[in-house]
Amino acid sequence: MITTDRMAAVDANAAALGVPRKQLMESSGNAVARAVREVADPGATVALCCGRGNNGGDAFVAARFLSAYDATVHLLGRPESIRTDIARENWTALETAEIPTEVVTDAADLALGDPDVVVDAMLGSGATGALREPERTAARLINESDAAVVAVDVPSGIDADTGEPTGSDADAGEPTGSDADTSEPSKIITDSGIHVDADRVVTFHDEKPGLAALDAEVTVADIGIPAAAERFTGPGDLLGLARDPNSHKGENGEVLVVGGGPYTGAPSLAARAALRAGADLVRVACPETVAREVQGFSADLIVRELPGDRIGPNHLDRVRDLADANDVVVLGPGLGDGDGSAEFVREFLTAYGGRAVVDADALRVVPTVETDAELICTPHQGELVGMGGETADDPNERAALVRSFAAEIGHTLLVKGAYDVIAGGGNGDEVRLNRTGNPGMTVGGTGDVLAGAVGALAAQTDPFRAAAVGAYVNGTAGDLAAAENGYGLVATDLIDRLPEAMRDE
Ligand SMILES: NC(=O)C1=CN([C@@H]2O[C@H](COP(=O)(O)OP(=O)(O)OC[C@H]3O[C@@H](n4cnc5c(N)ncnc54)[C@H](O)[C@@H]3O)[C@@H](O)[C@H]2O)[C@@H](O)CC1
Ligand SMILES: [K+]
Hints:
With about 500 residues, the protein is of the alpha/beta class.
């Protein structure tokens, strides 16, 4: 089962692995043609109703595989308005190959004839809101025809994630654009959920959550997306993290780093990484003895001094207040392994109900504490063993072990290694590997950078995704740093490269 957003991510990851979308489209179109062959014998008439997105592109390809049929491609809209290069290239191929096409610019001109099969390729996963014209009229004509209806990916007008008509949520009751029905208000209401009523759906790669409930036969076509596109993090994992252009200061994440005492660099690295990973405001709560030094590393940080030279139980009230004013806490960088600090971590987590990244010396407390907090633990393999987890040399074996340990402790784990393993704690079955990064990153401080970056991401997205994306961008920043500095790279090199590593194009 895969959601529309995750599918888009996997598709982009496949492209990064060398399997571009146009190749996937060829497989999709081929699968659609196979479904047509299953419902009608050669010689039958087939009307392919195509939109201007890639859903339509799939059907342009399908038409090439249907030479034994009397097939016509109906393009809804002008060819110049086809939205993607790959769909346009496949459209042009139809014209040069003299496969019958018809351009329908006005919904009133759409004449399907009386086909044996209709292929519904008007809208797929890119649909937003209720069907607009001319797709709306076309859906009505398709539903009125006696043809067997084969939908590409999802019936047009249905949300593949929910099975409900697109636009059945708050914003979309009213159709936009030109609409022949505007003079009949009652009709608008009854038609607002109009969608294609398909007999068959050919969907791609994996089942979609909303399709099972439909009264249609659903088949899943393997379109050649490599398993690695799902198993490993990739650039697609960054999609959808773009921020609201109207957002204000603070809305893109406020992060509190709690650490320092025996060390000053670690909390500073984590905090600066959180800023470079997109957090709006980053505060560091650290002992007063190191506060000036931590602040001295960067004017961008807000430093909150805690009395004394080590963080301990006497700081609980103050840190709780600070934590409540932030979206995410990063707990552990440079904290040290003193008994007082461990006691502080235990009591803080026991009462905390928010989201936290736990790193370094704070990690060993986690398995022994009862907490409502959502934790993302970032151990290396030694620290994992210290927590009571197991590790293995083989990445797949390690993934299975990390997954079951995450389920056992009920928190997200990001276990660092040549292949990082990320496993979700709540639902248990999500596990992903990250293979960005290089041996230059064994230098001190890169773990602090990772913890800070994950902290910033956890203010934007769910813990599992924050951990997966954090591992990916931290490793990518490391690879960019290694390209310049080789194994002489240092942790601050990674911080400066996080923004480039986070670019999703
Ligand atoms: N993601 C993948 O991995 C793959 C996707 N493929 C196909 O690509 C499809 C997604 O393509 P696109 O992202 O181009 O999306 P669509 O083909 O669904 O088209 C979206 C376009 O339609 C218009 N539109 C949106 N809502 C509308 C509405 N309510 N009424 C009228 N017009 C509307 C918008 O201008 C939008 O650009 C999938 O459903 C699938 O068929 C396949 O080709 C291969 C692999
Ligand atoms: K469709």
